[in-house]
Amino acid sequence: MSGRNRVRAYLGLGGNLGNPQTSMAMALRRIDMDAATTVSAVSPLYKTPPWGKLDQPDFLNACAEVETSRSPRRLLELCLATERSLKRVRGERWGPRVIDIDILLFGDIEVSEDGLQIPHPQMAKRAFVLIPLAALAPDIEITQTPVCTLLKNLPGDDISQITPDGSWWGESS
């Protein structure tokens, strides 16, 4: 994609080791420093119980809207490089982590490649993704279903908003 063809993409961020707010803020600042990618909006932070593997600390989660001229694969490479720079270690599935960055949506493009599925295949089942996404983009649709409709079918009363807005990532934490 050329520099003029920028696509709006949405990222999901989370972590539960160390200081997740600091890790996510650093990740967003690194992504925003990329010449081909700009962070255009960030959701509030949410405290969420673990999902999948329950015997671990609560997570902090957020979503970010980015504008990028990168391809989906190159955006994934940027996200993975950012995770590595923050010392992400990929251990057990759904286990504790310093930082996790997932591409949720990439314009209206669908991708099904080895190691890259867009829209993210599990997001419609995860309130910890949909709640921050709905706060950021309440009218967005996932596979032609509004995010708010998907949320009606998921329990989310154990998820709490801990920042008033999305300005937390630009603050020093």
The gist of it:
The protein is built from 4 helices and 10 strands, in the order βαβββαβββαββαβ. The chain is an alpha+beta fold and 173 residues long.
Account of the 3D structure:
There is one protein chain. The chain has 173 residues and is α+β, with helices and mostly antiparallel strands. It has one domain: 7,8-Dihydro-6-hydroxymethylpterin-pyrophosphokinase HPPK (Alpha-Beta Plaits, 2-Layer Sandwich). Helices cover 25% and strands 27% of the residues. The protein has helices spanning 20-33, 72-85, 127-136, 147-152; strands at residues 7-15, 37-42, 46-48, 59-68, 100-106, 111-113, 116-118, 141-142, 145-146, 160-161. Strand 6 (111-113) and strand 7 (116-118) form a beta hairpin. The longest helix has 14 residues, at 20-33.
Helix fraction by DSSP (H/I, runs of at least 4): 25-40%
Largest sheet: 6 strands, antiparallel
What structural category characterises the helix and strand content? alpha+beta
Number of H- or I-type helical stretches: 4
Overall form: globular
Number of strand segments: 10
Name the average pLDDT: 90
Domain count = 1
What's the arrangement of secondary structure elements?
Layout: E1 7-15, H1 20-33, E2 37-42, E3 46-48, E4 59-68, H2 72-85, E5 100-106, E6 111-113, E7 116-118, H3 127-136, E8 141-142, E9 145-146, H4 147-152, E10 160-161
Keywords:
173 residues, alpha+beta, Alpha-Beta Plaits, 4 helices, 27% strand
